Amino acid sequence: MSLLPTVYLAAEDLPGLAVGRRLIAEASPLLIHREENGHGYGTLRKKVKNYQKMASFGYPVLMLTDLDRVHCPSELLRNWISEQPHPNFLFRIAVREVESWLLADSCSLAEFLQIEVIHIPADPDSLVDAKSELLKLAQRSPRKIRTGLLPRPGSRATIGPEYNSLLNQFIISCWDIEKAAQQSPSLQRARSATMALAIKLRASF
């Protein structure tokens, strides 16, 4: 049994889980009890009431989902859950996608993609489709990165065969979450909420 407070982590995909791990790691000494990859938002939405119940029973939850085309975070929150999330349930929304948070560390992403930093948008939270923007940037990358991130010609897939694994590698090894938060208000809010939860849990543990 862990002697440190633990958190249940859920996200839409592997990059979302990797970002969640970074949020929890910097809120040390929180530990991750279990992870859930929703493979899209549908599973998370179906289970949101379960997460709320878990939090009310004393099992803290950090869930990350994308805003996508919904007008604002408060609207998405109302659509998903009919009550305010329990204080131990961190329902955090990336504006508009977790890729926005990655674009927010422009220097590290430019180095990872091997492109000039001038090509990366300065206000990632304002992008309607950050994933498409990242894929557009990847077209400037060397062949190995391009073929991993971009969908193959004629494929019905919207991303490349190594999209998730490459972004997971970037998040673990290169992404500076502190610098990214300076350019992404929604990421900064997620950081602040996670750190506040960590302080509360440590005080009551």
Q: Could you describe the 3D structure shown?
A:
The chain is α/β, with parallel strands linked by helices and 205 residues long. It folds into 2 domains: 6-97 and 183-204, Rossmann fold, CATH 3.40.50; 100-181, no CATH class. 51% of the residues lie in helices and 12% in strands. Strands 2-1-3-4 form a 4-stranded parallel beta sheet, sandwiched between helices. Helix 1 packs parallel to helix 8 and helix 9 packs across helix 10 (185-204). The longest helix has 20 residues, at 185-204. The chain starts with 5 loop residues before the first strand and ends with a helix. The relative contact order is 0.16. The model has no long low-confidence stretch (mean pLDDT 95).
